[in-house]
Amino acid sequence: MIDKSYNPTQVEGRWYKFWTEKGYFHADEHSKKPPFCIVIPPPNVTGKLHMGHALFVTIQDLLTRYKRMQGFEALWLPGTDHAGIATQVMVERQLAKENKTRLEIGREAFLERVWAWKREKGSNIIEQLKILGASCDWERERFTMDEGLSRAVREVFVRLYEEGLIYRDERLVNWDPVAQTVLSDLEIDNEPENGHLWKIRYKVAGSDESIVIATSRPETLFGDTAVAVHPDDERYKHIVGKQVELPLCGRTIPVIADPLAADMAFGTGAVKITPAHDFADFETGKRNNLPRIQVIGLDARMTDKVPEKYRGMTREECREATVEDLKAAGLLVEIVDYNFTPSRSQRSGALVEPLLLPQWWVNAKVLAKPAIEAVEKGETRMTPRLWEKTFFNWMNNIRDWCVSRQLWWGHQIPAYYCAECSKGHIHFIEKPGQKDPDLRIDNEAKPIVSKTKPEKCPVCGSTHLIQDPDVLDTWFSSGLWPFSTMGWPDNTDTLKKFYPTQVMETAADIIFFWVARMMMFGIHFMGETPFKDIYFHALVRDKAGLKMSKTKGNVIDPLLLIYGCKPESVPADERAASQQLFDDYPKGIDPQGADALRFSLTMLAAQGRDVRLDIRRIEGYRAFLNKVWQASRFVMMNLENTDAFSAIAADGCVEPFKVEDLSMTDAWILDGLNRCVADVTKSIDEFNFNEGAQRIYDFLWNVFCDWYIELAKVVLYSETTDEKTKRTTRLVLVHVLETILRLLHPFAPFMTEEIWQSLPKTDKAPESIMIAPWPVANPAFLNEKSAAMTQTLIDIVSAIRNIRGEANIAPSKAIPLVLMLTDDADKRSIVERMEASIRQLGKIEKITVDGAAAAKPAPCAIGVADGIEIVVPFADLINIDEERARLDKNIAKVTKALEASQRKLANPNFVARANPEVVETERTRVANGQVELEKLKKARALLG
RNA sequence: GGGCAUAUAGCUCAGCGGGAGAGCAUCGCCCUUACAAGGCGAGGGUCGCAGGUUCAAACCCUGCUGUGCCCACCA
């Protein structure tokens, strides 16, 4: 027997260890069962559990447990990501507390610090996934910087280089001057900001004329190498080809006509061209053969290419000085407010400086093509479908991927340079206070790309080889995840069994970062798309729809919800992150449990919608789990000391029923159960997890608990009912409960296991619900007739309860007599057979069944259920005014519905064109409605 | 500038061609021996606005308005 009250923390503490020790999570690559595999989106190794993790664990674990129960060899392959920039920054911060920088301690010592940090913190996130119940195969846990995965990275790099799909080239790139690294296009944010447009006069050399240009970055004018106007612009036609004086630096630059560079309608129609610091200008420069002058350096300060006065200034300082000096020189025409969109680093928030630097690139166009085709052909399906459009749009316009980063933490690029052959192109720059010199390798240096460090230069034989100092973008290694984790480049049994995987489940915001790249690499190296289905879950937001962030104080920490918390016992910084939560719940949160969180996330995460997490919803679903718990207690109490106690057979099901032993209500609940099983299965197969959860919720609570259990009590507690009937009822109770538990297990694994383990079972039953078979709907139990009859019973009881409720008759107060009037023999038979149930559920002492024409005692209250007139003599129970009001309300309701149906049937087009079944339904409604209305009206007339 | 999504009860959300649903909140009556984290009953919505298609529209189409997101070298 389970405990009297449901205590999630206690229950959830019990089972994870049991599952692990039994090895249920382990998938066997030599199994004969069909494979089902999900690879985890690897969380950052030093990360801390957040709601996004909770959501993906919920869905992926649900799918994995479901498939495992269905008899698949289910592998959920876990691991963590080294998260290059994020981890490096975190360790740098740690160093800063000791007043050290990574440059001071040098690369080698720094990397040792990061590894130490990883060893210390790396298991946290894994332990937290376990709290949620994640049934990952931990024996296969991987880390993107493992030796095996690093080998895969080198293999891919070398092969792509040899195929010409990776190359080194000097281009304008996004430079983050704070993080001191290049970023890919995807790592840039563009948020509009309030800024200005400065209009500056450039004088035409040797003339009184001038041209006014507009710019949002006046400090870059030192790098201008032209002014562009539109060729059709009448205002400037005459000065195209002439030189203008570049203010403050005594150079002259040409005025060029370029239809792509200049928009006649914008600003003054004339634009300064700075090819070394602007992407558009870079292209313009190429088209017009303009020189590039780099006036801003890696440190985001002005270089020695600007007049001495400005050298060493930051971009901001230089802007101020430039504007000041232009003003003094009378060349500043106007400053207007302007809303512009600067590029900022997602990581550091710094203004990105476009700089000309040699970097490593992946030719994305070539790799993207087969990935696009795989989705077009349906080899990989995306759910929700609309993401395919987004995917195509990006993939069709994909640009080459800059994969090198000037970081230390990551996979160092397997490229080497010969100090002899590339002499003059490799620069060691000693800097004060820096352990290692900076290493700059010009674009002209010749890389030797190799999986291992070559012993000597293949050209000149020199042994002085220098490895490229850069590391690869984190997403390069995560792009290999679906096969690198399975042992590639070796052709392992795991790869043979589990690649390609069945489902990729992830957040849509990394569709380009991660999903697209796994598609590209997977197809290129494995010859097959890495997953059949991609399911994108939504973003978890706060209850107001805002993204959760520490600075907004609207973070909801999954662990605080699962275990509950008192505000005073939460550390100050965490409390600040969750300020909103504690404002709403000043006394703290009760423990909700991982099951309730999982069930809630499942319910809230409808396809394609963002999740607004409201704790009240979670509390509601915890109440549901409590309901399951209590219903289970009821069932178990009624099994004790009976022979139904050992009824659950080896397949997890109770012994087969004899259909002829089933009562009307037994048949009805089994009909409902089998429909429920079919619906839940279909919902999960279609990734409609919320529908499945809703279906179980509704069936368990509104059908099983509210009606079947109450009806079962009548049977079980009756002294006159025979033992065989009671036994069947017990069997049905435990069968329905046990089946629901199995349906519910992927949604709420802990509590279903706890209850299931307490259920009576034979020796042949499986050891755990998680390896019990998934329920299969049995059509033999579908029974429309019993379902309809039971519905009549329910309608009768509801009608009586409606009278009771409206008349405020206390539940404890019995109604002495109720008349049930109908001429329909079938319905009379239902009432007669179910009399005891109706009496108990309606708390009625005596029921008399009679014909429709029978005399009614006056005064009385009247209800109608499925054509049966239900007459409650007033006695002293009912207030006549309230009864008048109740009848008027019901008459209005029935009249409205009746008229609606009549109106439809009066329309010849409806009768002619609508589906015959629909027409028939309306006819039935009219017939029933007319009877009911007539009865209600008569009853009302009796009351005067 | 392009694209996508979304608007349903006080709140958070399902439903997406045939009589408006859930949870929470609200209002009655109840500690009825599984459950007060509960039971029984009730109230509450011209389903964003305007057109259109259809016998029938919350649901399909068009436009508009609000909101959110993504992409894009608008000096």
Segments where pLDDT lies below 50 for 5+ residues? none
Q: Taking Cα atoms only, what radius of gyration do you get, to the nearest Å?
A: 37 Å
Portion of residues in beta strands equals 15-25%
Number of helix segments? 28
Quaternary state, please? Answer: single chain
Secondary structure: number of strands: 33
- What does the largest sheet look like? 7 strands, mixed
Question: What is the CA–CA distance across the termini?
Answer: 57 Å
Q: Helix and strand layout, with pairings?
A:
Layout: H1 8-22, E1 35-39, H2 51-69, E2 73-77, E3 79-80, H3 84-97, H4 102-131, E4 142-143, H5 147-162, E5 166-176, E6 181-183, E7 188-190, E8 193-204, E9 210-215, E10 226-229, E11 243-246, E12 251-257, E13 270-273, H6 279-288, H7 315-328, E14 332-340, E15 343-345, E16 353-362, H8 364-376, E17 381-383, H9 386-396, E18 401-402, E19 404-405, E20 415-418, E21 426-429, E22 438-441, E23 447-449, E24 465-467, E25 471-472, H10 474-478, H11 481-484, H12 493-498, E26 501-507, H13 511-526, E27 531-537, E28 540-541, H14 558-563, H15 572-577, H16 579-584, H17 593-604, E29 611-612, H18 615-637, H19 664-685, H20 689-717, H21 723-744, H22 749-758, H23 784-806, E30 815-821, H24 825-833, H25 835-842, E31 844-850, E32 860-865, E33 868-873, H26 880-906, H27 908-913, H28 916-943
Parallel strand pairs: 1-2, 3-4, 10-12, 17-27, 26-27, 28-29, 30-31
Antiparallel strand pairs: 5-6, 5-16, 7-15, 8-9, 8-11, 8-14, 10-13, 11-12, 16-18, 19-25, 20-23, 20-24, 21-22, 30-33, 32-33
Helix pairs in contact: 1-22, 2-17, 3-4, 8-9, 8-13, 17-18, 17-20, 18-20, 18-21, 19-20, 19-21, 19-23, 20-21, 20-25, 21-22, 26-28
The protein binds one RNA strand of 75 nucleotides through β9, β13, α6, α9 and α18.
